[in-house]
């Protein structure tokens, strides 16, 4: 019989060596201070390694059912990586490959959790920053002269944000350590030079970012095992839009009779926290959500630990709120942080008010369901208990974001609240995810112009022009951001198929689903069927 543990370890090690940040995020500190080599030679060697590992896994037999599902899960990861490196040519056409979240520029793992004494972490940080030069040189060598305009714009913002993070919070953390401060000075200069390099590429930028129908559908099928065509996908989302719009209009009528959804959303914004109270308000909301879940026995919460509510670090201040869970391999610093962006002291009074209106109480409550209870945080608690490294370390977009989106509606269906304000907040977020679905199909498969995508977010997602533009542009470099709605619908379909069983309960379903880790949903269907 094949030594499955050795085979699994070798495949995971290949991913970690090519992308050491993947290891650090997972909590494996053997890769601290190591920056991935993304030279063209190494990329070519990685493709060869992937092909050899696919060749080992595809014919592998004699495994248990669980091992065979993990084998399929690893094949999905390898084939997706191969598609991205070869046909999609991401190292050569996608600047976010080098600058985005999860890239080798990210050094936050050394600072945000005290997994070792500060001196050890700063030493690893210095080794990491010493690798910036070669890493950014590979980016300059590999990226084509003409790059997609929306992708380039967001990469410039991401690199500039990383430079500001190094020059701010990282420098503060290293105060008094001359060697580390010198390394930070050098890394800031190199990161700013990368920003300048990307800005120079704007002169020759193009708008031909679309994957095309064939490549888009193959990416979706390879990564999520969803074989649908464009017409089938559009049918799915149109039905969801119809349902969400009807419920949004019903809730809006209860809030602002005769005013419509837009007027009701403005009324929601009038009820918001202050800069001084927002963190404590969110903490109180989380305790209420947790208590309701336990009282109604909706899903197991396998730990008494709470996520820690904190203001968002500067490198991620473009987000409203986000969960940052400790990696499943982390054994010392297992805290999870729920970041909420608080207006900074240097914001104008107008900007402060606009932001707090955006983070109104109803929206914050729905976001907290998504991010914490019973969304991402609860899923991460279950993840730590999964026995398979494959299911812990590799995630399906549709699983993770789909589950967090699914529970928003599930909580209301379970009786958490009858407040029309929260119902409207949930449905407006659902319509935003529906717009992402349509725009992903439109931009990449149907030649949708970017102005039309922006208008769709404004008319159907009820966004103002600036956030609508950012959402539409995200679709250029994040083509599978349809996965929020797609994952939700796949989970609902699976739940509906199991509801007729004599031993069915909502809690059993949720626990069984979460017990499968982050596998693509069709593989979870295999396991719990």
Tell me what the structure shows.
The structure is a single chain. This protein has 529 residues and is mainly alpha-helical. Helices cover 65% and strands 2% of the residues. The protein is built from 25 helices and 3 strands. It has helices spanning 4-18, 20-26, 40-57, 65-85, 90-93, 96-99, 118-130, 132-142, 149-173, 178-201, 213-224, 230-255, 260-269, 278-296, 349-358, 361-371, 376-383, 389-393, 397-413, 420-445, 450-459, 465-477, 483-498, 506-514, 521-528; strands at 308-311, 321-324, 337-340. Strands 1-3-2 form a 3-stranded mixed beta sheet, covered by helices on one side. Helix 9 packs antiparallel against helix 10 (178-201). The longest helix has 26 residues, at 230-255. The radius of gyration is 23 Å and the shape is globular. The model has no long low-confidence stretch (mean pLDDT 96).
In brief:
With 529 residues, this protein is an all-alpha fold. The chain has helices at 4-18, 20-26, 40-57, 65-85, 90-93, 96-99, 118-130, 132-142, 149-173, 178-201, 213-224, 230-255, 260-269, 278-296, 349-358, 361-371, 376-383, 389-393, 397-413, 420-445, 450-459, 465-477, 483-498, 506-514, 521-528; strands at residues 308-311, 321-324, 337-340. It starts with a helix and ends with a helix.
pLDDT averaged residue by residue:
96
Put simply, the count of helices is 25
What is the general shape?
globular
H-E string: HHHHHHHHHHHHHHEEEHHHHHHHHHHH
Number of strands: 3
């Amino acid at each position: 019989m094949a030594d499955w543990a050795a085979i699994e370890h070798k495949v995971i090690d290949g991913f970690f060596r090519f992308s050491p940040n993947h290891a650090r995020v997972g909590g494996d500190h053997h890769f601290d201070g190591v920056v991935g080599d993304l030279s063209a030679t190494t990329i070519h060697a990685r493709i060869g390694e992937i092909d050899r590992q696919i060749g080992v896994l595809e014919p592998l037999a004699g495994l248990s059912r669980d091992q065979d599902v993990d084998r399929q899960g690893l094949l999905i990861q390898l084939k997706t990586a191969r598609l991205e490196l070869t046909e999609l040519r991401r190292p050569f056409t996608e600047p976010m490959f080098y600058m985005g979240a999860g890239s080798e520029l990210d050094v936050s793992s050394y600072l945000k959790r005290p997994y070792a004494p500060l001196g050890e972490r700063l030493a690893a940080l210095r080794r990491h920053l010493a690798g910036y030069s070669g890493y950014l040189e590979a980016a300059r060598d590999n990226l084509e002269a003409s790059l997609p305009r929306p992708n380039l714009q967001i990469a410039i913002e991401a690199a500039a944000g990383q430079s500001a993070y190094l020059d701010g919070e990282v420098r503060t953390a290293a105060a008094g350590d001359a060697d580390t401060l010198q390394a930070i000075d050098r890394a800031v200069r190199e990161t700013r030079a990368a920003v300048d390099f990307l800005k120079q590429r704007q002169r020759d930028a193009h708008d031909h970012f679309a994957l095309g129908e064939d490549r888009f559908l193959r990416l979706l099928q390879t990564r999520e095992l969803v074989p649908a065509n464009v017409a089938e996908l559009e049918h799915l989302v149109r039905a969801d839009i119809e349902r969400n719009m009807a419920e949004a209009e019903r809730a809006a009528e209860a809030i602002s009779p005769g005013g419509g959804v837009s007027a009701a959303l403005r009324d929601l914004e009038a009820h918001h926290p202050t800069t001084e109270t927002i963190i404590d308000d969110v903490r109180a909301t989380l305790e209420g959500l947790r208590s309701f879940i336990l009282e109604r026995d909706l899903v197991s919460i396998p730990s008494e630990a709470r996520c820690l509510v904190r203001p968002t670090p500067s490198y991620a201040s473009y987000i409203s709120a986000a969960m940052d869970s400790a990696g499943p391999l982390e054994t010392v610093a297992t805290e999870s942080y729920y970041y909420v962006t608080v207006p900074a002291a240097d914001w104008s009074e107008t900007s402060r008010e606009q932001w707090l209106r955006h983070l109104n109480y109803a929206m914050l409550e729905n976001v907290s369901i998504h991010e914490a209870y019973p969304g991402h945080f609860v899923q991460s608690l279950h993840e730590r208990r999964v026995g398979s490294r494959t299911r812990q370390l590799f995630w399906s977009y549709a699983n993770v974001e789909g589950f967090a989106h699914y529970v928003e509606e599930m909580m209301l269906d379970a009786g958490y609240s009858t407040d029309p304000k929260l119902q409207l907040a949930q449905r407006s977020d659902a319509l935003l995810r529906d717009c992402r679905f349509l725009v992903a199909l439109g931009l990449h498969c149907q030649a949708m112009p970017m102005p039309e995508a922006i208008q769709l977010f404004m008319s159907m997602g009820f966004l103002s022009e600036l956030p609508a533009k950012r959402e539409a542009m995200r679709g250029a470099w994040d083509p599978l951001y349809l996965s929020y709605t797609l994952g939700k619908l796949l989970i609902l379909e699976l739940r509906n198929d199991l509801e007729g069983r004599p031993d069915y309960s909502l809690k059993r379903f949720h626990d069984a689903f979460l017990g499968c880790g982050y596998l693509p949903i069709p593989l979870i269907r295999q396991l719990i069927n």
